[in-house]
């Protein structure tokens, strides 16, 4: 368990360094090579992070099963307690710091999840070795070697869900699938009054979240009953959309188009 906890912490630091390097790279503008920005790198790196954690969990799970079947693992409980206590305090500190500053950054949210897992692992180690120490003073002290692999099975089994869920969620961003329904509902709430004001018959809304950037594509389809929409009106509408979506604290890539023919809103042509 100590080996898993220490290895997880080491991997966490290495992956955090990777996130930091990529975040710095994303900030550097390069519109020639990346006309739509570099935000796509964020979900790719997050998938790599969780894939490494998932692999580590699976390998550790197999090792724990082998250890359990071969008679358990002898442990120096006293030294283990000191390690677990110090590690738990350190992980709690980092997790609290990240939670206070995570905002809407995918990188920081992934880091917070990563250190939350590390905190709970370290806490489980501490509780496990306290239990082992108490058992060693009872007639059941022969069970002490089994405490370590059992702890690994419980902790790793519990945490297998997190990387699987996060990989699935982040993979949606790589595929540029629709953003969360709450985001779509918020933007629809903004454009509905605009449709009423200018008597716009229909609109097509497309939203995709990639990293910390929100791509918003709106096509307003005008009809015979629609009011005249001048260039000034169009800019006013764009400004209104931006102002009313400020609470969506992502970088926004806004595209607003106006057409009399719905076919131009379909976007795909042979």
From TrEMBL:
Subcellular localization(s) per the UniProt record: Membrane
GO cellular component: plasma membrane
Keyword field: Membrane, Transmembrane, Transmembrane helix, Transport
Classification via SUPFAM superfamilies: Cation efflux protein transmembrane domain-like
Residues of the Cation efflux protein transmembrane domain: 2-173
Regions crossing the membrane: 6-26, 47-70, 76-98, 119-137, 143-160
Highest taxon above the source species: Bacteria
One GO MF term: cadmium ion transmembrane transporter activity
UniProt key word Membrane: yes
Name of this chain's protein: Cation efflux protein transmembrane domain-containing protein
Species this chain originates from: Halalkalibacter okhensis
């Amino acid at each position: 368990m100590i080996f898993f906890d220490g290895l997880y912490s080491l991997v966490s630091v290495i992956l955090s360094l990777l996130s930091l390097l990529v975040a710095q790279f994303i900030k550097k503008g390069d519109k020639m090579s990346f006309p739509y920005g570099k935000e796509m790198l964020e979900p790719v790196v997050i998938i790599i992070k969780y894939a490494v954690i998932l692999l580590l969990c699976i390998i550790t799970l197999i090792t724990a099963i082998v250890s359990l079947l071969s008679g358990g693992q002898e442990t120096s409980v006293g030294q283990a307690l000191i390690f677990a206590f110090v590690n738990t305090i350190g992980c709690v500190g980092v997790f609290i710091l990240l939670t206070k500053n995570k905002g809407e950054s995918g990188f920081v949210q992934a880091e917070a999840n990563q250190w939350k897992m590390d905190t709970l692992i370290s806490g489980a180690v501490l509780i496990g070795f306290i239990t082992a120490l108490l058992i060693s003073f009872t007639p059941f002290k022969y069970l002490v070697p089994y405490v370590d692999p059992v702890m690994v099975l419980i902790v790793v089994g519990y945490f297998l869900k997190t990387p699987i869920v996060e990989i699935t969620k982040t993979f949606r961003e790589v595929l540029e699938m629709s953003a969360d329904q709450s985001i779509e509902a918020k933007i629809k709430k903004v454009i509905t009054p605009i449709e009423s004001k200018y008597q716009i018959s229909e609109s097509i809304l497309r939203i995709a979240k990639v990293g910390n950037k929100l791509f918003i594509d709106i096509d307003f389809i005008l009809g015979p009953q629609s009011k005249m929409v001048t260039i000034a009106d169009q800019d006013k509408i764009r400004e209104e959309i931006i102002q009313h979506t400020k609470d969506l604290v992502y970088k926004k890539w806004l595209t607003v188009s106006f057409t009399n023919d719905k076919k131009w809103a379909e976007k795909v042509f042979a």
